[in-house]
Write a structure and sequence with these properties.
twelve-stranded antiparallel β-sheet; 31-stranded antiparallel β-sheet
Length: 879
């Protein structure tokens, strides 16, 4: 008899739990638009597939478990075919428990009613009500005076009446929604409405709504429309607001357009009250891996600027064109398209209206990923705006590439900029004598072009043969012989370079130096046209040979600590020799590194030591045995993790992070650290100042990103006359033990978790190619740190200081006010910088689960940006 009751009642209860979980998840998307993820490159899913994928795996598993109904008294009415369970009535199935003072089950009408202290506990939802009715035929129900917590007690919904209609439509009367459900009493913020109607998977509406703070209505919303699922939606995105002494008040407001499953676009209005007004537009099309088009364009009018503002913003007056035009534009784009399985067409471009455009702007694109996809770390520091386009064809052990490169020089005169149009390269490897030897070849035909100066065609070939060998487990080595041949056909006059720290002659021939010459160059070199002509054909062939030998010793230690089972340490000594004979090349053109193959008889020697960790095997996750392939995929996708559009990327619980993994014979290992120490000695050539044949001693140390610290460092030591350190750099990231692991509520781009980041760079005065004019050479130090003082307050600081020039480059200060349960955070940051010379204020307000307004002044926690899935190069860049 109990089994019969459960068969009728359980589907409706489960439908309620699942539907409410979907609805609350949908409400967590930004209140107006959702564009956190790039357009997917997959086929559209059906409604049934969406429904299956939204059901959590534990829910499906428990649905097949037995049901128990208990109570102090059970009464059966045969006339109405009704069971009445009174007194502490409890119905359980798996992890789901329904409690009430009384539960009535009407089998004939397929309805049920729970009365008094109704309490439903489910893996995905927990709810309380005074009364509830269920229609099992239509899967509809009504809850009165309902209070609902979902998603690990994060999302909180209350209403005098919550009604589930047929399908996936819900009505809430006199209720509110908030993510501040971790504390008792009035929530810090909430969305209150007289009536809300939500069609899960489509949209929702609210009538007579208000945005409340601490229980008080602040923003009235007579009528509002919001998305009711996690898909992308057109609408306004979080803007950027700030105040700067140079830019004035800045407001950038983007609008997102969801075109279809494969493409979308963003437009933005941008105004800086002391400098410019304009806008940006961006289009993204993604059809699959290596098939995408991203294009970003911007236009600005600079009529708002005063002459003083314009002059103060030009930090480097020695570029070829320091003029700032009234109308300015910029284009940044990248594209990949597979024409066949082996043939890919590509194109990347950065093109701007003037040389100072990239330096002055603080917003270049509306999506993250362009910089990594184009191989740039910072558009603002680029000295050359490059565009390239072409096709790449891959075949067995080789590839052919036909491309063109166009460079827009942002420092020197454009007439001297060197272009490569066209450029044909063929590279490959051929196995010889049953893999005993290998033949590698590189061939290139390129036409160099410039408006003024030497240009022309060049053909180069670099064939070589390699013989690898191995002596048991003790020694490995190789021997290689090859030659580089180059043929030129050039015309035009040579170009002279006048270096920084010197004064070019006044009125020098074809001089483009600042002031026509006579002014000391303190920022950039100066380029002039030589009177000497280098027209004609020439050729040269340079043979060379290389050989090397190495060995490896190792030791394994038992190490039972957290996720690490064993440690392995290796020591790998090595020695290499390279020989290039003396062949005069001074009469050859110089376009790039291919044009010079310097003579040498160079021995390189040293050792590398590495530390590996063997990771303990993780128990496999349980899955249902009767799941269909589609359901199995859904389990894998949703499987109880908090990764996705509603949550911040988590930090791994393992001591060892993802990335750099080694899997062999079912065993999982991870490299934790490496140290390389090496030096070079040339038997017949000088390799250092003072006529020495011995190079500096170089040390490379890497501590790979664990959840405690990561370190990368390089140090060069000059052993000649004990001159000391010539070059050094180090980057250290530390996550203190008190650092939080991030919030379980989606906080958009808000920074989470305490961390300390330190960077140091040093170069001695004598180790640069052109001896530095500053007696202290180059010495820079920078850092970033954030810590939460207690659960409601956090501080951020990011200084950058030039020790050589004894001046502050920039300093950023920030303070955060937040809720203890992370349901809201208010960030305020102030940046004082030298280039550009300005003081800027940024503000961001984040409502947990809904998104952010403004732009984060704090950046990102380095430990939360490592190990994320996806690569920004070759495929769709990450947001």
């Amino acid at each position: 008899m109990r089994g019969g009751v459960v068969c009728f009642l359980k589907p409706a209860l489960r439908s309620l739990a699942i539907a409410l979980a979907i609805m609350w998840a949908a409400l967590l998307s930004p209140a107006i638009a959702r564009a956190d993820d790039p357009p997917p490159a997959v086929a559209p899913t059906t409604a049934a597939t969406k429904r299956r994928s939204s059901i959590p795996a534990p829910v499906r598993v428990e649905h097949g478990e037995p049901v128990n109904v208990t109570g102090q008294e059970t009464i059966y009415d045969s006339k109405t075919d009704t069971f009445v369970v009174k007194g502490d009535a409890v119905m359980t199935q798996g992890g789901t428990v329904l409690k009430a003072d009384q539960i009535d089950i009407m089998r004939r009408d397929r309805k049920a009613r729970a009365i008094g202290h109704v309490h439903l506990i489910d893996p995905e939802v927990e709810m309380w009500a005074t009364e509830g009715t269920i229609d099992m035929t239509n899967e509809t129900m009504v809850l009165y005076n309902a209070k609902i917590l979902a998603k690990q007690n994060i999302y909180h919904l209350e209403g005098k009446q919550v009604t589930k209609l047929e399908g996936q439509t819900y009505e809430v009367k006199d209720g509110y929604f908030t993510t501040c459900g971790c504390e008792k009493g009035t929530p810090d913020w909430s969305i209150n409405a007289k009536e809300m109607k939500v069609n899960v998977g489509q949209t929702g509406t609210a009538q007579n709504a208000t945005f409340n703070v601490a229980g008080y209505p602040v923003i009235p919303m007579p009528y509002a429309i919001f998305p009711a699922d996690s898909d992308r939606h057109s609408g306004f995105l979080s803007g950027r607001e700030g105040q700067s002494g140079l830019r004035g008040f800045q407001w950038l407001q983007p609008y997102y357009i969801a075109i279809n499953k494969s493409s979308d676009a963003t437009g933005a209005f941008d105004i800086e009250t002391s400098q410019r007004v304009g806008g940006l537009g961006e289009y993204r099309l993604v059809n699959g891996k290596d098939d995408y088009l991203w294009a970003d364009g911007a236009f600005y009018n600079e009529a708002l600027r005063s002459d003083a503002n314009r002059l103060d913003d030009i930090i480097d007056p020695q570029i070829a064109d320091p003029h700032i035009p009234v109308n300015r534009f910029g284009i940044i784009a990248m594209a990949r398209q597979h024409l066949t399985d082996n043939l890919i067409a590509y194109g990347d471009t950065v093109s701007v209206s003037d040389s100072l455009y990239l330096r002055e702007m603080d917003v270049w694109t509306l999506s993250r990923g362009f910089q990594s996809g184009l191989g740039q770390s910072n558009f603002g520091s680029m000295s050359n705006a490059a565009s390239n386009f072409g096709m790449l064809y891959q075949f067995e052990n080789a590839y052919a590439q036909l491309q063109g490169n166009w460079n827009q020089d942002l420092i020197q005169p454009q007439q001297f900029a060197l272009q490569r149009l066209p450029d044909l390269t063929v590279t490959g490897r051929q196995e010889l004598f049953n893999n005993l030897m290998f033949s590698d070849y590189d061939a290139e035909a390129v036409n160099f072009y410039r408006y003024q100066g030497i240009d022309g065609g060049r053909f180069s070939a670099n064939p070589r043969i390699t013989l690898p060998w191995r002596l048991g487990d003790y020694l490995t080595g190789y021997g290689m012989v090859g030659s580089q041949g180059v043929l030129y056909d050039t015309a035009g006059r040579n170009i002279n370079i006048i270096p920084v720290g010197t004064k070019p002659p006044i009125n020098a021939r074809n001089s483009t130096c600042p002031g026509g010459g006579g002014v000391e160059l303190t920022f950039n070199n100066c380029v002039t046209l030589s009177p000497f002509n280098s027209s004609g054909t020439s050729a040269r062939i340079v043979p060379y040979a290389k050989t090397g030998i190495s060995t490896l010793v190792d030791r394994v230690y038992d190490f039972q600590f957290r996720s690490i089972e064993k440690l392995k340490n290796t020591i790998e000594p090595f020695a290499n020799y390279e020989y290039v004979p003396r062949v005069y090349q001074g009469n050859q053109p110089l376009f790039d590194q291919t044009d010079r193959l310097n003579s040498r008889s160079l021995i390189t020697y040293g050792f590398t030591t590495r530390l590996f960790a063997k990771i303990k095997e993780q128990a496999p996750e349980e899955t249902t045995t009767d799941a269909t392939p589609t359901e199995t995929e859904a389990i894998t996708d949703t499987g109880g993790t908090n990764v996705g559009p509603f949550h911040e990327e988590p930090l791994a619980d393992s001591l060892v992070p993802p990335g750099g993994n080694i899997v062999r014979n079912g065993e999982h290992s991870q490299q934790l650290a490496s140290l390389t120490v090496q030096q070079a000695y040339d038997t017949s050539h000088e390799v250092a100042t003072g006529g020495s044949h011995v190079s500096d001693i170089e040390g490379l140390l890497s501590l790979y990103a664990t959840q405690i610290a990561t370190l990368s460092s390089q140090l060069d030591y000059n052993p000649r006359a004990h001159s000391g350190i010539t070059q050094a750099n180090a980057t250290l990231d530390i996550q203190p033990p008190w650092s939080t692991k991030g919030s379980s509520i989606y906080l958009g781009k808000a920074l989470q978790g305490s961390f300390i980041e330190f960077a140091y760079n040093y170069a001695s005065r004598t180790s640069t190619v052109i001896q530095a004019t500053n007696k202290n050479a180059a010495q820079l130090v920078s850092g970033r740190a954030y810590t939460e003082v207690f659960d409601r307050l956090g501080f951020y600081i990011a200084p950058s200081y030039d020790l050589a020039a004894d001046r502050n480059l920039s300093t950023e200060y920030g303070v955060r006010l937040k809720s203890p349960c992370d349901c809201w955070a208010a960030d305020l940051g102030i940046t004082d910088s030298t280039n550009p010379n300005e003081v800027q204020v940024q503000f961001q307000l984040t409502l947990g689960g809904l998104g952010s307004v403004g732009r984060s002044p704090f950046g990102r926690n380095p430990f939360q940006t490592r190990g994320l899935v996806g690569s920004p190069t070759g495929v769709l860049p990450n947001y």
